[in-house]
Amino acid sequence: MGSTNSTLSKIPNVEELMQETGFTPAHIVRLYDRFEALDKEKTGHLRPQDFGAINRLAMNPIGDRIIGAFFSPGQETVDFHSFVRILAHFRPADKKRPKDPSMPEPVNSRTSKLKYPPLVFSLISVAFQLYDQDKDGKISRAELLQVLRSMLEMQVTEEQLESIADRTIQEADLDKDDAISFEEFRKSLEKVNIDHKMSIRFLR
Amino acid sequence: MVVELNHSLTSVIPESALLILIGWILGGIIYGADKMQTFTLTPTVFFFYLLPQVILDAGYFMPNKLFFSNMGAILVYAVIGTCWNAATVGLGLWGCWLGGAMGDIDIGLLQFLLFGSLIAAVDPVAVIAVFEEVHVNEVLFIMVFGESLLNDGVTVVLFNVFDAFVSLGGAEIDAVEIIKGIISFFVVAFGGSLVGIIFALLISLLTRCTKNIQIIEPGFIFILGYLSYLTAEMLSLSAILSIVFCGICCQKYINANMDERSVTTVRYVMKVFANGSETIIFVFLGISAIDPAVWVWNTGFILLTLLFIFVFRFIGVFLLTWILNKYRLVPLEFIDQVVMSYGGLRGAVAYGLVAMLDENKFKEKNLMVSTTLIVVYFTVMLQGITMKPLVTWLKVKRAAVTELTLAEKIQNRTFDHMLVAIEDISGQIGHNYMRDKWHNFEERWLCWFLMKPSARKSRDYIFNIFHQLNLKDAMSYVKEGERRGSLAFVRNETKADVDFNKKFRASFSEIMPDIMADNMGPDHVPLSSILQDIVPSVCLVMHEQDLTMRESEDFNAHHLLQQHLYRGRKQHRHRYSRSHLETNRDENEVQEIFQRTMRSRLESFKSAKMGVAPAKKIQTKHQKKDKPQKMPNGNSSDKSKNHPYGDKGTCSLLFTSLLHYMKWLNACFELIITLESAVDFVVRL
């Protein structure tokens, strides 16, 4: 593991990162390699175009939105730390780790996936962000329409789209303000087994 | 053929079972006429004339990506699973014989083991036949199917080894022989695969050079495929593995090299051969039964065999899955395992092997033949018929828990897409490093070697997409011009920007039928039968969707979602079907998504660019008038000067070149239109 150590030493604040996200050194190295591969100009930051170079993402209907999720509002670039932090949300919840009450709760536990406020970067928050592009804390009908449009095939006509959007809002909207707030969003996802879906197994 | 007419019958009873029934009837007729069975399924006919086509078909249509990404699990099941089955069945039977359950038969441990090995193998023909009716998720399917194909390596070795042992006699066996046996496994398996790969290379090379004799190209595929089978058989290697790998490895290259019509020919002929062979195999399996000469009944033997193969298969699968799930990305669920165990059908291969036994060495050959036949009938018919109800029952049990709301459905899909995207971003897909290496190697060397130059060029995916985008835009551009009148078009520079987005959507909604209308009423069925392979994510589904809900807006919305949500990359279905050739819907979907993404990126890029330098437009147009179409493979020398981002990423290059190309196209069309109007004018004079 000599190469791991040498790579690790290149990354600043690596200990803190590992603690916070729960990645093992091997994971961090792997992600660092990936980061460097994406960052073709070696600036230490990723920009939207770098993500755009991943061909497969272009084949994903919400690929561009997900790229956007990596960039906090106002930020033009992503550094390695933010990169890893966001990816940490998708690690499988590590059941085997002993509960150490003194440690800050790792980023990807079930509660953090569901908890509000948005300052705590939670998984549902990530999903919510995908919809809510103008960051007003609500998914308006127009935003929902946009997402639906991108996820449905071209064959679907505008009226059909709108009817789906209407019904969806009807189902989820509890306070009848014709928009889905974060709470309503969260409630509507109670039945979905998020843990199972969202966790990607990272290479050992 | 006849059964296709009566689809409702085949949805209950699998085609193979019906064919066996027909075989029985025919056999009865023949026997009644001749008082002896003149037609039986002889091993020679089976192994040399009937089986190769089926396997070649399986290999050629194999979904490679799926196959290789699950290769580890498939190998585990095929090798270890088959060995386990063989050993347990053989030993179990031997134990029971020692215990006296079978009465007095002239048989020994080795013969039991041999019998175990030939009855242990899951049969590809039977698996396809049954799984065709039952739609299971692709991972499950590829597991069972891949296992059935690859276990031939093991079966052949075990069979030959035990055959040799029986010839030697029990006393001669020592460690050396056993080690020789193990080594022979590796030799046979890898040797067979190697032969297959060599022939695949040969075929690919051949198709590379056959530009002038396209009409007989398909013939070569079949001949060489069959040759690979024969060669392996000749060298005492695993012939099935050989032909499977031949099909798997060559499909990509011959599809790229050959003319479209040849490709279509190959596909259809393969299906014809495979279907035909399968039909004949099953009919003969039926006919062979009606022959009192071979029937020996031994209750203990037969019943115990049935019991053991069933039980030990379950145990084997569950055990192996439990081990495998520790290493797998997506664990195999309980239901999948049940289906896998239940789907371990034995078929004609077992019968062929047992018929090959030498009667002098195996005094109880007829008993084994009878048992094998009964086992085959049991698995194919009983398990085949009950497979579907079992699946329904299990699935109903699972699905009864949740009926998702619209929001949940959308979310589910969103999450799936998110998952795929994050995987792509973080570059994690299984053994990524190796796969990248292999991919690079393959791109650089193999494609250069095995594919025609013209085929190679058109393989560049992005270029293809852009090319199509260009063409589409150009077409709509011209149409727009025609609509407005060509002169107006030429005059008005600013109006030349067609609203592509609107055009795109408008043309599509015109063409596609209004699905809302079709949803009303009982003739909804045609729609769902056309869109057959709409299946929700990882679960077991039925062939016909059971529509009990009447028209309501709610239902329509759900249905729309069900049918039209883009399926994530992970869920792309690879249906292997004997009688249906799939048009690759998934590829269209991926292309569509890709085009839309590129288009939207282009729009935003264009708007950014327009904002930066609108005045430059006219200049660039004239400059680029005679620039040839760019190959956006990174060697475009045109690094745009007024690039807002200023970097040299390939994507931005593509965008710029696309833009310039379109401007060039614009100029060309203007030229053409001017010429055309000039000609018009002249003609009118």
Describe this protein's structure.
The complex is a heterodimer of chains A (204) and B (685). Chain A is built from 13 helices and 4 strands. The radius of gyration of chain A is 19 Å and the shape is elongated. With 204 residues, chain A is mainly alpha-helical. A two-stranded antiparallel sheet of chain A has the order 1-2. The longest helix of chain A has 15 residues, at 158-172. Chain B has 685 residues and is mainly α. Chain B is 72% helix and 0% strand. Chain B is built from 29 helices and no strands. The longest helix of chain B is centred in the middle third of the chain and has 35 residues, at 365-399. Chain B is elongated. Chain B starts with a helix and ends with a helix. The model of chain B is unreliable at 490-551 and 612-649 (pLDDT under 50). Classes of the chains: A mainly alpha (204), B mainly alpha (685).
Oligomer: heterodimer
Shape of chain B: elongated
Give Rg of chain A in angstroms.
Answer: 19 Å
Shape of chain A: elongated
Strand-residue proportion of chain B: under 5%
Keywords (chain B): Antiport, Cell membrane, Endosome, Ion transport, Membrane, Phosphoprotein, Signal, Sodium, Sodium transport, Transmembrane, Transmembrane helix, Transport
Protein name (chain B): Sodium/hydrogen exchanger
Catalytic activity (chain B): Na(+)(in) + H(+)(out) = Na(+)(out) + H(+)(in)
Subcellular location (chain B): Apical cell membrane; Early endosome membrane; Recycling endosome membrane
